[in-house]
Write a structure and sequence with these properties.
This protein is an alpha+beta fold. It has helices at 46-52, 68-86, 97-100, 103-111, 127-147; strands spanning 10-13, 22-27, 33-38, 55-58. A hairpin with an 8-residue loop joins strand 1 (10-13) and strand 2 (22-27). It starts with 9 loop residues before the first strand and ends with a helix.
Length: 148
């Protein structure tokens, strides 16, 4: 999975008439979310960004995550999207995260069997662990791309 594919359901927008000097992120995959923040908040650390945006609205209240951990993961994905969007490098330089993963070893660690999990088959009970791994690899690869 290339990093860019992760963000197909995210949109970055500006409404210069109603909200000048502000940026809006709309996350269209469930749970859907809208975040509005100041333009100069694009280059800040995650914790500062998370604690200082102007508007944060779940678009479907019945799909709103309950746990703080899930909410923080969704917010981190939004923040990562901003950082990947800022990246000036071409999409050809994007790193294929799946190629960085030793699926056999991940499968052994999570399930005890080297063939239970692979890039095309991730059992539901291991999805959260794999998504967490992708998020961390995504952050690391974004940092790597910026430095090189």
């Amino acid at each position: 999975m290339k990093i860019i594919k992760k963000y197909r359901k995210f949109y970055l927008s500006k409404n210069v008439l109603c909200y000048p000097e502000q940026i809006i992120i709309i996350k269209l995959s469930c749970p859907r979310l809208l975040i509005r923040f100041k333009e100069d908040f694009e280059d800040v650390e995650f914790d500062f960004w998370k604690n200082n945006f102007l508007c944060f609205e779940w678009l479907d209240l019945h799909d709103k995550p309950i746990s703080k951990k899930n909410i923080d993961k969704i917010l981190f994905d939004c923040w990562s999207f901003i950082n990947s969007h800022k990246n000036k490098k071409s999409h050809n330089n994007m790193i294929d995260i799946e190629k960085l993963i030793n699926w056999s070893e991940i499968s052994r660690l999570l399930s005890g069997n080297r063939k239970s999990i692979n890039a095309k088959r991730i059992p539901k009970k291991h999805k959260e662990a794999i998504n967490n791994l992708f998020s961390k690899l995504d952050a690391w690869t974004n940092e790597f791309i910026e430095k090189h």
